[in-house]
Structure formats: C-alpha cells, structure tokens
Design a protein that fits this description.
282 residues; 4-stranded mixed beta sheet; Immunoglobulin-like; 24% helix; alpha+beta; 10 strands
Length: 282
C-alpha cells in the first residue's frame, strides 16, 4: 500500500506472507544458526555446572552423612560429541579425516537423493500440504544465487498435467544437498497423480540435468506434534545403577502445622526439618 501503516487485504498479500514463512522456516542457513546457538547454550551450561559438581563430589566423598543425604541424579549429557556431523553438517569423509564441503562451480550431477540419475521419483503427498524433495549434487551452495554463470532451476508439470498451473516452489543448496519445497498446483484433487519435471541448467552446461517426479495426492492427515509423539527414553544397562551419574538435591516437602507430615514425624514449633532416607521412602 502507499501508506506504510496499512496492509493490502488482497489474496496476493496472504500468498506472499505464506511463501515468506516457508522460506524462513526451511532456510538451511537459519536452521544451522539455530543449531549453533543451541549447541553454544548447552556447552555453556555444562562448563558452568562442572566446577560445582566437582566441589560437591569432593565434599560428599569426605562426608558419608552428606553422601546419604543427597539423591543420585542424572548428569546433563553432552548432545554434540566432538567431530559429529550429519548429512548437512558441511563435513565430508569418515572418522577423523572429515573435511569441509567444497562444491564445484558447475555441477557434474544433480539427482534425487538415493536414486540413480534418470530414475523417476514416485511418492505420495497430502492435499493442502507442501512437498519436500531432496536432491544430491556436487555444486557449491551459491550456484543459484551468484552473479555470474548462475544456475537456473525450473519446475513444470508435464504429460497429462501440462495444462496445470506451475507449482510455487523454492530451492536451496546446502553442502551437497538441494532442498526443494513446493506447493501443488491449485487444480489438483485427492487421487490425482501429478508429474513434474525439474530442470537444472546454466550457460556452461551442454545438456541440463532433468529429473521427473510423480506425486500421488492423498487425503490430508493430522500428524501429532513432536512433543506429543515423543517417547520417553529408556535407561541403558542391566541394573538401576547403570544410568545413574552425578548428584541431585533431595525433594523438599513443605510441612504445615496440623497436616499429615506434621503429625507423622512429630513436628513441633522448634522443628526445622526432618530428613527421610531415599531407601526408606522407596
């Protein structure tokens, strides 16, 4: 709008907002930044917690009474082992010989992940949901964004679907992987099979890389959120002591005059606390 304090109410406004949301949500650089910050927060917490734990362990070893007073607790495990890298971590190789990903200026291959080049990708998708498809390549991350000899990615319906509206999509490269995020053409309905052709080209390639995907549209299903679907991890080992590390403060129960704990443990106005052994409680 001409005035900045108002927004357009036309459908294109909401379509643009939705596309921007998808770009931000699936941007690999932002995802890596979030992972990096999370790792730094966890490592900072571990570094701050370790000195206190060492001091308390020394005190407890010298005093059996205090050792029996405290409960044994789980120590925060380090979720980012040194040298660990996923498929998109920017590292290549195995063992201690990992190297940072170094892409070519022009690709020598661009194909669906886990499929030979020329093999048609067949998969199901849900109506009303965006489709994510992963490619593998050896080209640098800036291939589609650089100023000179830029690569071009085209996605269009072919065959019986050629009259459909071209799908809205975004493509991003991340250390040897291409992440395609697309919305199905508006004409599609449940039961349709949409055939899409993805073409990658640039001014230096003699022949473009062509990949074909056949997507079968199914009914939209409700998927549980990560928190709802997450299962509790089971402790390892054969005994109850196998997964116990570190220390934890005992559970503190507030006692008021006249309640059950007051009477059971014979509290009076001069009682400060009453210690219950963890073994007795169990």
């Amino acid at each position: 709008m001409s005035s900045r304090d108002r927004l357009s109410k036309k459908p294109i406004r909401y379509q643009l907002e939705k596309e921007i949301e998808q770009l931000l949500k699936n941007n690999p650089a932002l995802r890596n930044l979030q992972q990096k910050r999370r790792q730094e927060d966890v490592e900072s917490k571990l570094s701050e917690e370790r000195p206190l734990e060492e001091v308390l362990n020394k005190v407890l070893r010298s005093s059996p009474t205090l050792n029996s007073l405290f409960l044994r607790g789980q120590r925060l495990a380090k979720p980012f082992p040194a040298g660990a890298g996923g498929a998109n971590s920017g590292l290549s190789g195995t063992g201690n010989e990992q190297k940072p990903f170094s892409g070519r200026r022009h690709p020598t291959y661009f194909k669906f992940e886990n499929l030979d080049y020329g093999t048609t990708l067949k998969r199901n998708c849900e109506a009303g949901r965006r489709v994510r498809i992963t490619f593998t390549t050896d080209v640098e991350n800036e291939y589609f964004d650089r100023a000179t000899d830029r690569g071009f990615f085209e996605l269009e319906p072919i065959g019986e679907c050629s009259e459909m509206t071209p799908p809205s999509f975004s493509i991003s490269l991340e250390n040897g992987y291409g992440h395609l995020n697309l919305a199905l053409p508006s004409e599609t309905t449940v039961g349709d099979t949409v055939t899409l052709q993805a073409t990658v080209s640039d001014p230096t390639l003699l022949e473009p890389f062509t990949n074909i995907a056949k997507l079968t549209v199914l009914h939209k299903q409700d998927h549980p959120s990560r928190k709802e679907g997450r299962r509790k991890r089971k402790g390892g080992g054969t005994g109850s002591e196998a997964s116990v590390q570190g220390i934890a403060l005992p559970e503190i129960i507030l006692v008021r005059e006249g309640d059950e704990h007051w009477r059971r443990h014979r509290f009076d106005h001069h009682t400060a606390c009453h210690v219950i052994s963890a073994h007795r409680r169990e």
